[in-house]
From TrEMBL:
Keyword Oxidoreductase: yes
UniProt keyword terms in alphabetical order: FAD, Flavoprotein, Oxidoreductase
Region of interest (Disordered), residue spans: 1-25
Organism of this sequence: Linnemannia hyalina
Family to which the UniProt record says this protein belongs: Belongs to the paxM FAD-dependent monooxygenase family.
Record-given protein name: FAD-binding domain-containing protein
GO MF term set: FAD binding; monooxygenase activity
Limits of the FAD-binding domain: 34-194
Length: 475
C-alpha cells in the first residue's frame, strides 16, 4: 500500500469493498458510529461532546504522542459556555489568567498604546490566557482511554451507502458511519477528499487554491521563574505585551505571564517585509538547530523581562515550535459520510465546530445514509456564515497586532488611541455574541448583557420534550 490516502466515493465503490465487515443495517435505531481522524483540540473536544451525548466514537492519531505547541492560547466568551456545560470550566480557570489588557511598545519599550481587551460586565466572561499544552492535557484526560488510538496512520478511506472504512498503516481496518477529518489545517483527509472530488469535477475552484501565509512564528514557554526577579508573575491577571520592530523590521515579539510562574513568548515574522522572513518561510522544516540559529540572531531584542535571549535561555528547546499563520475559508466541508472540522482560524473556531457538529450528529435518528448526509449538510449550513463573518475580523486583528507596513501602523494608532470607547464596546458586543452550546446538555447560565445569537434548536430534544409532556398529561 502506498503512503497516501485514496478516497473512493460511494458513487463508484461497489459494496464488495466492505465484504466481511460487521456493518450495521442500512437503517438502524442505534446512534451512528463516528470515526475521528486527529487527536488535536477539535478532535478531542468533539470526542468529549459525543461521550456526553452517548454516541459511540473512536479517535485515531497518526503520532505516537502529541506534543502541543508550547505557545500561549487565548479563549474568549465565544466558547467558555461550552466548557461550563462539560464541567471543565473550573479546571480550565485553574491554569489560566485573565487577559484584561494588552500594551503595545516600540522596540525601545516606549508605549504605543494600551488596549482594554475585555469587559466582564458586558460579556460575562473575561478573556483567559494559558499555555496550550495544559488545555490539551486536560481534554486528553477526559477521553476514555479505550476510545483514543495513537500511532494509527490512515493510509486510505472508502465510503459508500453502507458506511465508511479506514485502512491503517499497520494493515488493520475499521468501519463506521461517519468520518470526521479533525487533523488540522493540513488535514490529510481533506487533501485527499478534495483530490477525489477534483477528479470527479465536484471541487469548487476556490478550494483548489493554496492557503495564503502572511506570518510565521516562533513560540515557546519558559520554565518556572523566580517571582522575586520577575514580580509581574505574581499578578492575578496576565501581563500581555506586544513589541514592534522599527519600520524596516519584519518582527513583532510578544510576552504573556501565565500560572506556574512562567512566561510564554512569541516571535512573529511578517512575510514580504525582509529577506530573512521569506527565507524562513521557504524552509519546509524547522528543526531545533534552525530554531537556535534564528534565536541567536534576535537575542538582543528587548522585553519587559530583559532581552529575548534571557527568556530563550530558560526555555526548553524541545518545546520551541514554528507556526504558520495561514488563512483560507474552504467551501467544501462535507461529502457523503465525511465531514471536516477545525480548518478555521484558531482554537476557538475549531471547538465551536465540534459543538455544532455534535449537535447535528445527535439529531441523526434513525441512523441512515440519507439522515447522515442531511445532518452533515445542516451542520455546514448553520456554521458557515458565522465562520465567514469572523474571517475579516481575524484579518484586521492580525494587522493590528503584527503588521509592519505604514498603513498597518496607522491603523493601529487610530484604533487603539483615537477610536471612541463606545465604538469599541459595540464591536466587542458583536464579536462575543456568538456562543454555541451543546443542545443535548443543560444550558450554561447567561452571563453578561450581550444579546446572544440564537442557534438552531435540536429536533430530537424537542420531540423528546413533547413526548415527556404528553406522558405526563396522560398520567
Amino acid at each position: 500500500m502506498s503512503d497516501r490516502l485514496e478516497d473512493q466515493e460511494y458513487t463508484d465503490l461497489p459494496s464488495a469493498g466492505f465484504k466481511g465487515s460487521d456493518l450495521p443495517p442500512l437503517v438502524t435505531d442505534e446512534p451512528p458510529r463516528v470515526l475521528i481522524a486527529g487527536a488535536g483540540l477539535a478532535g478531542l473536544f468533539l470526542g468529549i461532546l459525543l461521550e456526553k451525548a452517548g454516541i459511540p466514537f473512536e479517535i485515531f492519531e497518526r503520532s505516537s504522542e502529541i506534543k502541543p505547541l508550547g505557545a500561549i492560547m487565548c479563549l474568549s466568551p465565544n466558547i467558555l459556555p461550552a466548557f461550563e456545560q462539560l464541567g471543565l470550566y473550573e479546571e480550565l480557570m485553574s491554569f489560566s489568567k485573565k487577559g484584561i489588557y494588552a500594551t503595545y511598545y516600540t522596540d525601545q519599550l516606549k508605549v504605543i498604546a494600551r488596549h482594554d481587551s475585555t469587559d466582564g460586565e458586558l460579556t460575562g466572561y473575561e478573556r483567559i490566557l494559558f499555555a496550550r499544552p495544559q488545555l490539551y492535557d486536560m481534554l486528553f484526560r477526559d477521553i476514555p482511554s479505550n476510545k483514543i488510538h495513537m500511532s494509527k496512520k490512515i493510509l486510505s478511506f472508502q465510503q459508500n451507502h453502507e458506511g465508511v472504512m479506514l485502512r491503517f498503516s499497520d494493515n488493520t481496518t475499521i468501519h463506521g458511519d461517519i468520518l470526521v477529518g479533525a487533523d488540522g489545517a493540513h488535514s490529510a483527509i481533506r487533501q485527499h477528499l478534495y483530490k477525489t472530488l477534483d477528479k470527479q469535477g465536484l471541487l469548487p475552484m476556490a478550494d483548489a487554491k493554496a492557503m495564503s501565509r502572511g506570518y510565521i512564528s516562533l513560540v515557546g514557554t519558559t520554565r518556572p521563574l523566580d517571582p522575586v526577579k520577575y514580580p509581574s508573575l505574581l499578578k492575578d491577571d496576565c501581563e500581555t505585551s506586544f513589541i514592534l520592530g522599527d519600520n524596516k523590521s519584519p518582527y513583532t515579539w510578544a510576552t504573556f505571564t501565565i500560572p506556574g510562574n512562567k512566561i510564554c513568548w512569541n516571535v512573529i515574522i511578517q512575510l514580504g517585509i525582509a529577506e530573512i522572513a521569506d527565507d524562513q518561510f521557504r524552509s519546509s522544516e524547522w528543526v531545533p538547530e534552525q530554531s537556535l540559529g534564528m534565536m541567536d540572531s534576535i537575542r538582543h531584542f528587548k522585553t519587559l523581562y530583559g532581552t529575548l535571549g534571557e527568556l530563550f535561555d530558560v526555555t526548553p528547546i524541545e518545546g520551541v515550535s514554528k507556526v504558520y499563520f495561514e488563512d483560507m475559508l474552504f467551501e467544501t466541508w462535507t461529502h457523503g459520510r465525511t465531514v471536516l472540522i477545525g480548518d478555521g482560524a484558531g482554537a476557538v473556531n475549531a471547538m465551536q465546530d465540534a459543538v455544532l457538529l455534535a449537535n447535528h450528529i445527535y439529531d441523526i435518528t434513525p441512523t441512515s445514509f440519507d439522515n447522515i448526509k442531511n445532518a452533515l449538510n445542516n451542520y455546514k449550513e448553520e456554521r458557515f456564515d458565522a465562520v465567514k463573518d469572523q474571517y475579516p475580523q481575524s484579518y484586521i486583528s492580525a494587522k493590528l497586532m503584527y503588521g509592519h507596513t505604514l498603513s498597518e501602523r496607522l491603523l493601529r494608532q487610530v484604533v487603539f488611541n483615537w477610536m471612541p470607547k463606545s465604538v469599541m464596546r459595540k464591536q466587542l458586543s458583536k464579536n462575543t455574541a456568538y456562543r454555541p452550546q451543546a443542545n443535548f446538555l443543560p444550558q450554561a447560565p447567561k452571563r453578561g448583557t450581550v444579546e446572544i445569537i440564537p442557534q438552531w434548536q435540536s429536533k430530537r430534544v424537542q420531540k423528546e420534550g413533547e413526548a415527556k409532556a404528553n406522558t405526563a398529561t396522560a398520567l
